[in-house]
Specification:
The complex is a heterodimer of chains A (126) and B (191).
Chain A: E1 2-7, E2 10-19, E3 24-28, E4 31-35, H1 37-52, E5 58-61, E6 66-71, E7 78-79, E8 84-90, E9 93-99, E10 103-108, E11 115-116, E12 121-125
Chain B: E1 3-9, H1 12-21, E2 29-35, E3 53-59, H2 64-86, E4 90-93, E5 97-100, E6 103-116, E7 134-143, H3 152-155, H4 161-165, H5 171-190
Parallel strand pairs in B: 1-2
Antiparallel strand pairs in B: 2-3, 3-7, 4-5, 5-6, 6-7
Helix pairs in contact in B: 2-5
The chains are: A mainly beta (126), B alpha+beta (191).
Chain lengths: 126, 191
C-alpha cells in the first residue's frame, strides 16, 4: 500500500511493505524502516492522545479592570461569530466582547456587576 | 476630517459602531442635530433635543489602555474648549462628565468591540488568552450647547451653554475644536 504524506510543503511517498502482529515495515522514499511491537504501541498511544487534546479551548480574560455590566450568554450555549458575549465597563468606557468564531460557552466565571481586574478569567470558550 | 451631518439619528454611537464594523476610515465623525435614543453609560437615556451637539468619532485602532486614557482626556478637551471660547469655569467630574455651576453640561462614552477568538490554528498550549487588540471603537460626546430648557426631572442636574451664557454658540466650531484636540491627544499618548 502506498501513501502520500505532506509535511509542511514537502511530500513524502510512504509505502507499507509488510504489516503483521509483530512487525511493520515501511519505505519512505528510498529508506526502509522496521517497527517492532514496542514501537507500534508507542505509535498507537500517540494516535489516541492527539485527538483528545483540546486545541481550541480558550480562556477569555478581562482586557482591562472594570465591572461586568451585562452577560448575554449562558453556560453550554452555542454562539455564533460576532455574537455579543458580555459588556465590561471600565470608567466610562464600555467594552463589548464578541465572539470571533462559532463556539460554545464552556464556563462563565463571573456574574453581572462583578468587578474584575485586568487578566481575570471571564469565561471559557471551546 | 470627514463629518457626516445628519438631521436625526437614534444614537450617533450606534451609527458609528455600525459604520466601524464596515471598516470606515478612522476619524470619521457622525453628528446628528437630535437623537431619539441617545444614551450614556449602561444605556442611560441622554436628553438629545434639537440645538445640542451630539457626535461620535470612529477611532483608529488603538491599544485599550490608550483608549481608556483618551476617554478621560476627552473631558479635559471639552472643558478646555468651553473655557477658552466662553470664559466659563467648567468642572471635570471624573471620569468624564463636564459640569458648569454644579450641573452637567457634557457626557462622554467610549465603546469598544473586542474579539474573543477560540482560534483555529493548532497550538500546543491548551489555553490562550484573548488579545488586547480592539477591533473597533467609537467615542461619543453629548454636549448641551443650544438647549433652551430641560424637562423638570433634569432641570436641577443639567444645564446648557446657552442657559449659562444667555446666547447661542457655534456648534460646528466647537465640534471641530474638540475633534482636533482628541486627535492631538491620541497621537501624544500612542507614541
Amino acid at each position: 500500500m502506498k501513501l502520500k504524506l505532506k509535511i509542511k510543503d514537502k511530500e513524502y511517498e510512504v509505502e507499507i511493505l509488510e504489516e503483521d502482529a509483530d512487525q511493520t515495515k515501511i519505505k519512505v522514499g528510498e529508506k526502509e524502516f522496521s517497527f517492532g511491537r514496542e514501537e507500534k504501541e508507542k505509535i498507537a498511544v500517540a494516535q489516541t492522545i492527539l485527538p483528545k487534546r483540546n486545541f481550541s479551548k480558550k480562556e477569555i480574560r478581562a482586557p482591562v479592570a472594570g465591572t461586568v455590566s451585562k452577560i448575554f450568554v449562558k453556560e453550554g450555549e452555542f454562539i455564533k461569530k460576532n455574537q455579543k458575549i458580555l459588556i465590561l465597563s471600565a470608567m466610562k468606557m464600555e467594552n463589548e466582547i464578541i465572539s470571533e468564531n462559532d463556539s460554545r460557552v464552556k464556563e462563565i466565571e463571573v456574574k453581572e456587576n462583578q468587578q474584575v481586574y485586568a487578566d481575570d478569567i471571564l469565561l471559557i470558550l471551546e | 476630517m470627514k463629518i457626516l451631518n445628519l438631521k436625526e439619528l437614534p444614537s450617533t454611537n450606534e451609527k458609528a459602531k455600525a459604520l466601524s464594523r464596515k471598516k470606515i476610515a478612522p476619524w470619521t465623525v457622525i453628528s446628528a442635530e437630535k437623537q431619539t435614543a441617545g444614551y450614556g453609560k449602561e444605556k442611560v437615556f441622554w436628553f438629545s433635543p434639537q440645538g445640542g451637539l451630539y457626535f461620535s468619532i470612529v477611532l483608529p485602532k488603538s491599544k485599550i489602555e490608550d483608549l481608556q486614557t483618551l476617554t478621560i482626556l476627552a473631558a479635559f478637551i471639552v472643558a478646555k474648549t468651553i473655557k477658552e471660547n466662553f470664559n466659563l469655569e467648567p468642572f471635570i467630574k471624573l471620569p468624564n462628565d463636564v459640569w458648569i455651576n454644579g450641573k452637567k453640561v457634557c457626557g462622554i462614552l467610549t465603546e469598544s468591540v473586542i474579539g474573543a477568538s477560540t482560534g483555529s490554528a493548532p497550538t500546543l498550549s491548551r489555553v490562550e488568552r484573548v488579545g488586547k487588540e480592539v477591533k473597533s471603537s467609537v467615542i461619543g460626546i453629548g454636549l448641551n450647547t443650544n438647549i433652551d430648557k430641560f424637562p423638570k426631572e433634569l432641570e436641577k442636574t443639567a444645564t446648557s451653554l446657552k442657559i449659562e451664557l444667555g446666547k447661542e454658540v457655534d456648534n460646528e466650531k466647537i465640534l471641530k475644536e474638540i475633534i482636533q484636540g482628541l486627535k492631538k491627544q491620541l497621537a501624544t499618548i500612542s507614541d
